[in-house]
Specification:
The chain has 2 domains: about 200 residues, no CATH class; about 150 residues, Reverse transcriptase/Diguanylate cyclase domain (Alpha-Beta Plaits). It is α+β, with helices and mostly antiparallel strands and about 400 residues long. It has a 5-stranded mixed sheet with strand order 2-3-1-4-5, sandwiched between helices. It is rod-shaped.
Length: about 400
């Protein structure tokens, strides 16, 4: 219950846009009137009960001014008036109270409350300015020492010795406890804010790590895939083909590499624009991929060039069938392109190990066969051989 009340009081004058430092200063400074204001009210009532009306007016005036301070702070959210008023009151009024009680001999115990001023200044001010409040406190102590004899000689309204002893115990206990809790609250709040900030930094670091992981995954993906079609790129083709050649060699099987170049693609770009050309490439990539098995590989190696590798062949009878399927699939209509601009494909085919055993050689021979098709009939396929004869 007490903690909830304290937390509610700590939110007086707070704003959502307060930074950590300002929020800590506000909450720490609020403790000063909350601690001393309650004590001053009790002290004032006790002094009235003991007939010390002048002495009672001093702590009661502090309580009244502090209530107005807190109300004004809640209305304006401006901490400066609260700070300046509290610092001056907390520094001066304990000395005024001590002087009204007859100086050091009878009232030195109330001086402890004045030490709240330099303590609070350490929290709110810079270190050099906080020293001025300490110097002011020491100056008031010096003044009190100089006028102490006069106060003793002219003080007539004394309190019972038991009351003096009680006030001594209460002021020392409450005053030092107040200083302790003010410093303790400030330290705890700093630690809590530091923990929160550390957690925030930890969370931010985790988010950054995840972002970097995601970015790295994307980089890895685009290092091996074509950005437009999401097919394997030339680098990834080399890696996959190397593995497929090793497997084919181990099992004494054949690989077929089909180099596919689109016919009519340049006209599509020229008449419809590159955006339409890109859309066409994406659709063709999906169509070709849908015809392949899980162990086959397809890659985009140029603007309108694709390479398909069919592995695990014990004979090559299925290769011409697949080549013709690719051509038929590419020749199908596209609803965003007029039939006046037909799309076809020229395909060159090389075989491992018949034509070559090296990756680059297989690609180059299939490319050479494709150009042979391109230069003649187009829209068909050709196996590479030394005489470049057609096999259909």
């Amino acid at each position: 219950m007490f903690k909830r009340c304290l937390d509610a009081c700590m939110r007086i004058g707070s704003c959502d846009d307060d930074d950590e430092t300002l929020a800590l200063k506000k909450s720490s400074l609020l403790l000063v009137p909350l601690i001393i204001g309650v004590a001053a009210l009790i002290w004032g009532i006790l002094y009235i009960f003991l007939g010390q009306l002048i002495s009672a007016s001093i702590p009661l005036s502090y309580t009244v001014i502090s209530i107005f301070n807190l109300w004004h702070f809640q209305k304006t959210k401006n901490i400066i008036p609260l700070y300046k008023t509290q610092m001056v009151l907390v520094l001066l009024l304990p000395f005024f109270l001590m002087w009204s009680l007859g100086g050091f001999a009878l009232g030195s115990y109330v001086m402890i409350w004045a030490f709240f001023a330099p303590i609070a200044a350490l929290i709110y001010e810079k270190k050099t300015k906080a020293l001025y409040w300490f110097y002011a406190f020491m100056a008031l102590v010096l003044i009190s020492t100089l006028i102490d004899q006069y106060l003793i000689q002219n003080h007539t309204n004394t309190m019972p010795q038991m009351a003096v002893e009680l006030f001594f115990w209460l002021n020392i206990t409450a005053g030092l406890s107040g200083v302790f809790f003010l410093i303790k609250y400030f330290i705890n709040a700093k630690e809590e804010n530091a923990n929160v900030r550390l957690q925030q930094e930890h969370d931010a670091l985790l988010r950054k790590t995840e972002e970097l992981k995601e970015a790295n995954s994307q980089l890895q993906y685009f290092a091996h895939h074509d950005a437009l079609t999401s097919l394997a790129n030339r680098y990834s083709l080399q890696t996959s083909l190397s593995k497929m050649i090793a497997a084919a060699k181990e099992k004494s099987q054949t690989l077929a590499l089909l180099f596919i170049d689109l016919d009519g693609f340049k006209e599509i770009n020229n008449n419809y624009g590159h955006a339409t050309g890109d859309r066409l490439l994406e659709i063709i990539a999906k169509r070709l991929k849908s015809l392949l098995g899980d162990e086959d590989v397809i890659a985009r190696v140029g603007g309108d060039e694709f390479v398909v590798v069919i592995g695990g062949l014990n004979d090559i009878s299925s290769v011409p069938v697949m080549a013709q399927k690719f051509i038929d699939e590419i020749q199908k209509e596209y609803d965003f392109i007029s039939s006046d601009f037909p799309v076809g494909a020229s395909i060159g085919i090389s075989l491992y190990p018949k034509h070559a055993k090296e990756i680059d050689a297989l690609i180059n021979l299939a490319d050479k066969a494709m150009y042979k098709v391109k230069a003649s009939t187009k829209n068909t396929f050709l196996f590479y051989d030394e005489r470049m004869q057609m096999h259909v």
